[in-house]
Design brief:
The protein has 368 residues and is an alpha/beta fold. The chain folds into two domains: 235 residues, Aspartate Aminotransferase, domain 2; 123 residues, Aspartate Aminotransferase, domain 1. The chain contains 13 helices and twelve strands. It has a seven-stranded mixed β-sheet with strand order 1-9-8-5-4-2-3, with helices on both faces. Strands 7-6-10 form a three-stranded antiparallel β-sheet, with no helix packed on it. The protein has a two-stranded antiparallel ribbon with strand order 11-12. Helix 2 packs antiparallel against helix 9. The chain is globular.
C-alpha cells in the first residue's frame, strides 16, 4: 500500500529529538504560553523573514485572530477564493464578515488579479489571499490592487511553508501571514497549531491580546478576545521539525520532479509554478477529465490520493445564502471537477513514485 500521507515517517526520522523535546516540556511543568512557544514564535518568524510571530491553537484561529486584529467585523466584505479549504471561509464568517469570491487563474489556480481588480470596491475591507498547494501567489499584483485603496491583505499560508516568491518566503509580504501546523502540512505538528506573522508591532501586540481573552499583561480584558494559545508540547515538537524543514522541502521538490518527469508525456495537466515563485509542494495536484477512472485504478492498486477540493466553497450548502450559482466562478468550478492530489510525503520512495505514475499512465491509456 502507498499512503497519501504518512504521519509516522518524520517522527521515526527525528524520534530522539522529538521525545527529548516532549520530556523537556513535561519536566518543566509549564505547558501554556511558556518558553517553548516564545522560542518557536521567534524561530519561525526568523525563518520566513518576519519581525514578529504570534502562536495560536490552529491555522483557522490564525486567520480569525488576524482578521480581528485588522478590525474586520460584522458585515464587512472580505474577498477571497472558493477553491480553498473551508476553514479559510469559516474564519471570515467567525468575525461576522461576508466572504465574496474571486475566480482563479486557469494555469496556477491562484487568485486571478484581473478578477480581483473587477471585484474590489469601496465596500471591500480585506483580501484573504491563498497560497494553494504550496504554490506562491504573486503578492505584488495583489498589493498593487489592494494597497492604493487602503485594503489590508491577510495571506493564508496554511499550505505554503517554504514557498517563496522573488527569493522571499511567503507570509511577510502581506499585512499578516497565517500558518497552519496541522499534521499533514510541510511543517506539521502532532495535533492542531497555528501562527501569525507580521512586521507591524501594533498588529503583533493586538494579536497577542486577542489570543488570550483580550488580556494585555494582566487579567483585565482590553478587547474582546479568544482562548487560542499554542501549547508548549506542540511548540517544542515544531521547533525540532523546523530545524529539518529545509531538508523536507528538498525531498518534496525532488519527488515532485520525479512525478513531473514520469508524467510529462501523459495527458495530465501537471502543476504549474507561479513565474518568479518557488513551489513548496504541499500537494502534487494533477488535473484530468478522467478523474473517476483514475481514482478507481488507484484504489485497486492500493494507492492513496486526495481531492483538494471536490466542491468549491461558494457551491456548498452552508454558504448558499451568499447567492452564488453554478457558473459564477467557471475556472474554479472546472478545477474542482478535475483536480487529483497524488501521494507526496517524505516517507515516499522514488520507486513508489514510479509505481503511482505507471498506474496512472495505464489507466489513461485504457480509456483513450
Amino acid at each position: 500500500m502507498i499512503l497519501a500521507f504518512d504521519p509516522c515517517s518524520e517522527y521515526r526520522r527525528h524520534q530522539h529529538e522529538i521525545d527529548s523535546a516532549i520530556a523537556r516540556v513535561l519536566n518543566s511543568g509549564q505547558v501554556i504560553l511558556g518558553p517553548e512557544g516564545a522560542c518557536f514564535e521567534e524561530e519561525f518568524a526568523a525563518y520566513v523573514g518576519a519581525r514578529y510571530g504570534v502562536g495560536v491553537k490552529s491555522g483557522t484561529d490564525a486567520l480569525i485572530v488576524a482578521l480581528r486584529a485588522l478590525g474586520i467585523g460584522a458585515d464587512d466584505e472580505v474577498l477571497t477564493v472558493a477553491n480553498t479549504a473551508v476553514p479559510t471561509v469559516a474564519a471570515i464568517r467567525a468575525t461576522g464578515a461576508i466572504p465574496r469570491f474571486v475566480d482563479v487563474d486557469p494555469v496556477t489556480l491562484l487568485m486571478d488579479a484581473d478578477h480581483l481588480q473587477a471585484a474590489i470596491s469601496s465596500q471591500t475591507r480585506c483580501v484573504v489571499a491563498v497560497h494553494l498547494y504550496g504554490n506562491p501567489l504573486d503578492m505584488q499584483q495583489i498589493k498593487a490592487i489592494a494597497a492604493p485603496r487602503g485594503v489590508p491583505i491577510v495571506a493564508d499560508c496554511a499550505q505554503a511553508h517554504g514557498a517563496q516568491f522573488g527569493g522571499r518566503h511567503v507570509g511577510p509580504d502581506a499585512d499578516i501571514g497565517c500558518y497552519s501546523f496541522y499534521p499533514t502540512k510541510n511543517l506539521g505538528g502532532f495535533g492542531d497549531a497555528g501562527l501569525c506573522t507580521t512586521d507591524d508591532a501594533r498588529l503583533a501586540a493586538q494579536m497577542r491580546r486577542i489570543r488570550m481573552y483580550g488580556f494585555d499583561g494582566d487579567r483585565v480584558a482590553q478587547c474582546e478576545g479568544l482562548c487560542s494559545r499554542l501549547d508548549e508540547l506542540q511548540a517544542a515538537m515544531l521547533r525540532v521539525k523546523l530545524r529539518h524543514l529545509d531538508k523536507v522541502l528538498l525531498v518534496r521538490r525532488r519527488l515532485a520532479e520525479r512525478y513531473t518527469h514520469s508524467l510529462s508525456e501523459s495527458d495530465f495537466v501537471l502543476p504549474a509554478t507561479t513565474p518568479g515563485g518557488r513551489h513548496a509542494y504541499h500537494q502534487y495536484v494533477v488535473r484530468t477529465s478522467q478523474r473517476t477512472t483514475l481514482m478507481e485504478e488507484l484504489q485497486r492498486a492500493q494507492i492513496g490520493y486526495g481531492i483538494h477540493y471536490p466542491v468549491p466553497v461558494h457551491l456548498m450548502p452552508a454558504y448558499a445564502w451568499l447567492g452564488y450559482r453554478p457558473g459564477d466562478l467557471p475556472v474554479t468550478e472546472r478545477a474542482a471537477e478535475e483536480v487529483l492530489s497524488l501521494p507526496l510525503h517524505v516517507g515516499l520512495s522514488e520507486n513508489e513514485i514510479r509505481d503511482v505514475a505507471s498506474v496512472l499512465r495505464g489507466a489513461v491509456q485504457a480509456v483513450t
